[in-house]
Specification:
Blueprint (H helix, E strand, L loop, with lengths): L1 H38 L1 E7 L6 E8 L5 E9 L7 E2 L16 H4 L3 H18 L15 H21 L3 H14 L2 H4 L3
Antiparallel strand pairs: 1-2, 2-3, 3-4
Helix pairs in contact: 4-5
């Protein structure tokens, strides 16, 4: 009976300690987010790992999509803290996909988190505040329709500015590559 009480006290102490460390991690997240928010809009991407470490990235972005400051938090435990990602400063968030050399040098979880931040930014830029899942719209067409609308807006903006046709092709190619493979053969 006595050992059961000691075990229960140990479990409660471990749970309270875990809550305290989780609270410290949340404070670190809020401090980093507030600092980035003072610089501009913030794009947040995340990728949770079940056995591997979870990853959160935050990019402070100006009105043109240039990264002003970038931070990442990656780790298995609640002891993980945010670290700066200086390589991404000055880069355009629109091009943070799996083909970008900066993104390719990161591990798979970090790549997924960076692409998620890009997707969240593009959704917000397209005027979609809430991310739609594939169950919210028929086969996920809602996201792609809005992304197509954003791509067309970017294309028209570049045509009005007199930008060379090579960049028009790049915008269309980016949209095509975001489509699932089974949809690419529909047209």
């Amino acid at each position: 009976m006595n050992s059961l009480i000691i075990f229960a006290v140990f479990v409660m102490a471990a749970y309270i300690f875990q809550m305290f460390l989780g609270w410290q991690q949340l404070k670190d997240f809020n401090k980093t987010y507030t600092m980035l928010r003072k610089l501009g809009r913030v794009a947040i991407g995340r990728k949770s790992g079940r056995i591997k470490s979870g990853t959160i990235v935050m990019f402070a972005v100006d009105e043109n999509g240039r990264v002003l400051k970038a931070s990442k938090m990656q780790g298995v435990t609640i002891l993980a803290r945010f670290q700066n990602m200086d390589d991404y400063v000055g880069e355009d968030i629109h091009y943070f996909d799996k083909y970008n050399p900066l993104v390719r040098k990161e591990n798979k979880l970090m790549q997924s988190a960076i692409e998620d931040a890009r997707k969240v930014y593009l959704l917000h830029e397209a005027g979609i505040e809430k991310e739609t899942s594939s169950s919210d719209s028929f086969l996920g067409f809602g996201f792609y329709a809005n992304y197509l609308q954003l791509s067309i807006k970017q294309l028209l903006k570049k045509i009005r500015k007199g930008v060379p046709y090579e960049s028009h092709y790049k915008i269309c190619r980016e949209f095509y590559e975001t489509l699932p493979i089974r949809w690419r053969n529909l047209y």
